[in-house]
Amino acid sequence: GVVMTRLTDGVVATTYQGIEEEATRAGYSVLLSSPPDDPEAQRAAIELLVGRQVDGLLLSGLHRPGKEFIASLRVGDVPMMTLTRHADAGLPFVGGDDVRGGALAARHLIDRGYTDLAVIAGPAHATTATDRLAGFRSETAAAGIELPDHRIVPSSFEVRGGTEAGRILLDAPDRPRAIFAVSDTIAVGVLGVARDLGLRIPEDLALVGYNDIPIAAQLPVPLTTIHSPALEIGQTAVRGLLDLTAGRDVESRRLPVELVVRGTT
């Protein structure tokens, strides 16, 4: 059983592809539910799949903090793992190394000479977003660079979130010189705002995204981003869940991410 929010997002869909491929190889079929990104909708989806007598559950969209939510579920002894978001839920987890990814983004901007920085931080309930922000802040602090609160703007993960947060940061006299967006879709929204304001990329504004979606390399100014192994996350999660169903211990894993430098920096 798989509960996966935001399946229309290309990164999420790629992760699901990895789940489907690995489950098929192992002789399993997958029952998928894609509820809204809301805890109660996820609860209903989880309990529905348990009622279908699944052998195990993969949960990708949990909200943080997730321990109380997990404890409140009526799932019996069905093994569970989280993927992509760990949600501080106390379950085995597979995802990208988002803290390191945020740190890589910050270090790249600092190495390029940027010190006037801002972050479009995604939603506070998603550990993908909060971990990336934490890594970025840790690296800027180590470099002695201040990142004031007004330079950290929450958003959704969608393009619209990027445009709304981008306007807050860029349509102002003290706009930042460089922005880290915690997803590529957010970064696309920022690029639209920069275009509307007549800002040149990267001469007036440098930009780093996250995930390395296929369109990132094909934008008018190709997007510098952090590559996250979405397909491998799905595959690794299935292998871990099958180990759990067999009674074996499973350790959480954060898969490597890497910086991909392109035209926006």
TrEMBL record:
- Pfam families the record matches: Peripla_BP_3
Keyword DNA-binding tagged: yes
**Gene3D superfamilies associated with the record:** 3.40.50.2300
InterPro entries xref list: LacI/GalR-like_sensor (IPR046335), Peripla_BP_I (IPR028082)
Which superkingdom is the protein from?
Bacteria
GO MF terms listed in the record are: DNA-binding transcription factor activity; transcription cis-regulatory region binding
Q: Name all Transcriptional regulator LacI/GalR-like sensor domain ranges.
A: 106-265
Q: Which UniProt keywords apply?
A: DNA-binding, Repressor, Transcription, Transcription regulation
PANTHER family on file: HTH-TYPE TRANSCRIPTIONAL REPRESSOR PURR-RELATED, LACI-RELATED TRANSCRIPTIONAL REPRESSOR
Q: What name has this protein been given in UniProt?
A: Putative LacI family transcriptional regulator
What is the protein's species of origin?
A: Gordonia alkanivorans NBRC 16433
Q: What is the lineage of its organism?
A: Bacteria, Bacillati, Actinomycetota, Actinomycetes, Mycobacteriales
